[in-house]
Amino acid sequence: MAKRGRRRILYLLTTFWSGAFSISAFAWQLAQQPADRYLAAMDRSDRVLKADEVIGKLELKPGDIVADIGSGSGSFSIPMAKAVAPNGILYAVDIDQAMLDHVAERAKKAGITNLRTVLGEYDDPKLPVKDVDVAFFHRVLHMIEHRQVYLNSTAKYLKPDGRVVVIDKNREDSPNSWMWLNQSDVDSWMAAIGFYPAQHFAVFDDRYFVVYQRPYGNSVLLKKGAAKKK
Ligand SMILES: C[S@@+](CC[C@H](N)C(=O)[O-])C[C@H]1O[C@@H](n2cnc3c(N)ncnc32)[C@H](O)[C@@H]1O
């Protein structure tokens, strides 16, 4: 049986036996889980996120337009919105409205006014603007079934020198998990749409953290010494 077919059957069985009998619209989104279970997992206090360090490496600044794609519980959306305030906008994108409602509530409680939630589609983040500085994927791209299509859609919302940031896990670093993504595959999908690794940051022990850019404008790719580990 084809690998993808086996994955789908595995996912459907897992969803069924885990008591989430709602084999719903999410059935074809890889490893998607009901929002309440996700939120509990994502808001765990022992999760290693290093959000401030990530924001520092990306040098986010007031005025930037950032899309946190697959924003989940908002672990990155909330601090990123603060980093780009007051005149920057953080778009929290997810395919699950319950996650977005949770993020909006968190933002409201924190007095954040520059965060917008966006209900994306499986193959398109559906952003309302086309001048995004940073499209950020933290542990999300491995869940998207049509990665090449999704990345292609995302690129259409970016400024010419806008950045696509991918933080994910190599399969060989997690042998029991079929769902992660090798960075070499991400590099290939990005290259197919004209983006190349511009920066690698060694922030996490178990995840790669790569910034992709096209060679335009203020792209790091046009500066000396690009794509070095920092
Ligand atoms: C593992 S969680 C990560 C959440 C967040 N980035 C974090 O690290 O805390 C993955 C999130 O991606 C969302 N997601 C899955 N497929 C998506 C898609 N095609 N477009 C946008 N979001 C998606 C899920 O609903 C979920 O909230």
What characteristics describe this protein?
single chain, 230 residues, alpha/beta, Rossmann fold, 2 domains, seven-stranded mixed beta sheet, 7 helices, 31% helix, 20% strand, binds S-adenosylmethionine
Verbal overview:
With 230 residues, the protein is α/β, with parallel strands linked by helices. The chain folds into two domains: 1-32; 33-222, Vaccinia Virus protein VP39 (Rossmann fold, 3-Layer(aba) Sandwich). The chain is built from seven helices and seven strands; from the N terminus they run H-H-H-E-H-E-H-E-E-H-E-H-E-E. A seven-stranded mixed beta sheet has the order 3-2-1-4-5-7-6. The protein starts with a helix and ends in a 17-residue tail after the last strand. Mean pLDDT is 86; it is low at 10-28. S-adenosylmethionine binds at residues 29, 32, 38, 42, 69-73, 75, 93-96, 99, 120, 122, 138-140, 143-144.
Task: Please render the helix and strand layout as text.
Elements: H1 3-17, H2 35-42, H3 51-58, E1 65-69, H4 77-84, E2 89-94, H5 97-109, E3 115-119, E4 132-138, H6 147-155, E5 158-168, H7 183-192, E6 196-200, E7 208-213
The structure holds S-adenosylmethionine.
Residues 29, 32, 38, 42, 69-73, 75, 93-96, 99, 120, 122, 138-140, 143-144 line the site of S-adenosylmethionine.
Short summary of the structure?
With 230 residues, this protein is of the alpha/beta class.
CATH architecture of the largest domain: 3-Layer(aba) Sandwich
Structural class: alpha/beta
Main β sheet profile: 7 strands, mixed
Low-confidence stretches: 10-28
Would you list the SSEs in sequence order as H and E?
HHHEHEHEEHEHEE
Strand order of the largest sheet: 3-2-1-4-5-7-6
Bound molecules: S-adenosylmethionine
Approximate shape: globular
Determine the CATH topology of the largest domain: Rossmann fold
Report mean pLDDT, rounded to a whole number. 86
How many structurally independent domains? 2
- Provide the CATH top-level class of the largest domain: Alpha Beta
CATH superfamily of the largest domain: Vaccinia Virus protein VP39
Total number of β-strand segments? 7
